[in-house]
Amino acid sequence: MSDRPVGVGPHPAPWPTDPRFDPQLLADGDRRNVTDEYRYWRVDAIVADLDLRRHGFHVAVENWEHDFNIGTVVRNANAFVAAGVHIVGPHRWD
Predict the structure, then answer these.
(1) Which of 13, 56, 60, 87 has the most CB atoms within 10 Å of its CB?
(2) pLDDT tens track for 14-58
(3) H helices then E strands: how many in the chain?
């Protein structure tokens, strides 16, 4: 495992003036797990941009016996910009 920090450091001056950028992230660096397209953006700006591209499909997961790998399904649905994820059946988490 590398000791190298994840993400990028502070943005060089001059800073972008687009309101989607977060001044705190520009100043301190962006260590989040986001694509370079969204680097230094505010979370609400990222969500708004994704909403413009969101697909109409929903993903349903039937939880038969345990909660294993449901997080993987949710992450993949997010990666494909699904409109929603539904868990069918009993679960022990919110």
Answers:
(1) 87
(2) 999 999 999 999 999 999 989 999 999 999 999 999 999 999 999
(3) 3, 2
Residues 54 and 79 sit within 8 Å (Cβ to Cβ): no
How far is CA 27 from each of CA 11, 23, 53, rounded to the nearest angstrom? Answer: 6, 6, 29
Would you say the pTM of this structure is higher than 0.85?
no
**Residue from 94, 56, 60, 34 nearest 25 by CA:** 34
Contact 31, 6 (CB under 8 A): yes
Spatial distance between the Cα atoms of 79 and 65, rounded to a whole number of angstroms: 26
Which residue in the block uniquely carries the two structure tokens 């969204």?
A: 38
Q: Please, which pLDDT band fits residue 6 given cuts at 50, 70 and 90?
A: confident
Given a contact cutoff of 8 angstroms between Cβ atoms, the answer to whether 15 and 22 are in contact is no
Take residue 66 and report the two structure tokens written for it. Answer: 């345990």
